[in-house]
Fold each of these.
Amino acid sequence: MKPKSTSLASRSPSAALFLALAILIAVGLLVLGRLVLATPAPAQAPVPGGTVPSTLALSLSEPSPFRRIGRSDFFAATIRARVTATDVPTKLSVVDGEVRAGRRLGHMASRNSILSPALEARAGAGLGPFYSLDAILPTPLRAWRQPLGGETAKIRLRQKALNARALRNHGKLLLVTLTAGGP
């Protein structure tokens, strides 16, 4: 024999409404209870301290093409450097990456031609001096005394030439370094 099913609504519409309201109130109280329990604790001030792994990262953009600076005999190009460092002090340097000594050191050159004077560089937003890249040791362009997280620095290169055609076939491989620690 099949059990007989009867709905609450068929017994009494007011009983069904009462049961539905009771269920809604119970669900509402549970939700309210969850909301109350889910509220975050009052914010506490961070506690200084801890250790951070040593990180040193340098990424470089493609250099822009050399463009004449005003009406002068100088042409300039820019390389953007993105620096991340946890150790301080941090230094950004540039050195000739092709030769260690001789007439071509720091100079843009082609097969048989060397531009004079040497290529120059500087970094930073200020109007600091340009440094000649004909030195054997890396030329420090910028230094930071605090940890860095994706700091951008512009490396500006400058070359004296009679015209843009003189630069066309000349090139120079530069080694850009980022060092941390030390004096």
Note: Residues 56-180 form a domain with the Immunoglobulin-like fold (CATH 2.60.40).
Amino acid sequence: MDNEADETADMAIEQMAQVEAIKKAIMQKVLTKEARERLNRLRLVKPEIAAQLELYLVQLYQAGKLAAQLSDEQLKSVLEMLLSEKKFKIVRHEK
């Protein structure tokens, strides 16, 4: 039984590594060097936002909506758009 759990864990780790490799390859294709550097710095301070940005870029790439590499300025614009969508306020009314 323990052996099955180990194999399942190993397979999950391997799949995660494959997904990361694919994501890295896509980022190489869709971002300029400067934009990749910005994404890496963002990953250090806000990993959840960097992951969301990567997911969005992967989706754009897979949908064929990225005709050329995104520059650092374009990446900043996409990031601002993603961050502005997250700003909302929950107001609770007490009865």
Note: The chain has one domain: 2-82.
Amino acid sequence: MIEALEKLIGPKSEDPEMARKERFLNVALVVLLAADVGYLVYRSIEWRQGRDNLRIVDGAILATFIFLVLCYWLSRRGRVRLSAGLVVVFLFLVTGYLFHTTGLGVDAILLGVLTIFVGGLLVNPPGNWVIAASVVAAAAATAFAVQQDRLPPPIQIPMGITLGLVVIVTFLLALLTWLSTRELTAALCAARARMDELQVLDEERQKLVADLTATTERQAQLLEMVRELSSPVAPVLEGIIVLPLVGRVDEERAQRISDTLLQGIATHQAQVVILDVTGLVGVDGQTMERVLHVARSARLSGVEVVLVGIQAEVAADLIGLRLDWSGLVTRADLRAGVEYALSRQGMRLVGGRES
């Protein structure tokens, strides 16, 4: 039963707003068609039993039935806007006719309310406001004409039609309330579900930020450790320290090396610093200029700097460069540098030991 009803009124549009209008339009058309069918069946029974003759209003109801079938067919074929417009215009014309023929009777007022109600649901602004204003204007004009006694004698509408109109308007109002409540409930549930999703996403984001922060802190600690290990200051003997340089030396690393060396000089109270460049990679003029800058910074603190480990091929390349070697002592390797440093302190190596 529910599946069959859904096939009759279920929307086919994928747009939520258009689907809402299509559903209500289909429901309104089905209700009106059912009311027309009920009325026509009732009048057919009366006519066959000879209790009443056919009247003009019966033909009007039959024409209305055919028109509503056309509107329903258009709606099911996806022409929702056209069908809704035809229904609203038809209701407005019938309302105007009833205002003219019955004055401000119950039927005209109910149909006017139904027209405003259906127009408000099926027509977008400002069209729905135009419809409401037109119905109100027609009612006001009717009231003025009644006061001025300019309307023809009112036509008596059968009580069955009046009761049917009351039932239809009441049913459609109840239907609107139900549909609105259902849509609001569905929207509220969707909003709550979305809020829960957003809360979960926010918790995941906070956890991710915390993980990233912890990872960044660990990386910073590891980077600091690597920096410290990349340029370690090693005390050899009292007053003598060695700083081995390994890898490439750029501007930033040269500054860190200089800071590390100055701190090591102060910590170990060094008098001689041995810079071992044996492990340098890509030694060129810029690299040696940075190394010499480190050496000059150390000399400004009052120590003697010994540069060791310059390879023969590198030395040949550096000869043609205008580098400031003044005040620096150079030795071939670390052993020779240590022997020089000991000699500056009045000591020497005997069999690999200090003497």
Note: The chain has two domains: 2-194, 232-354.
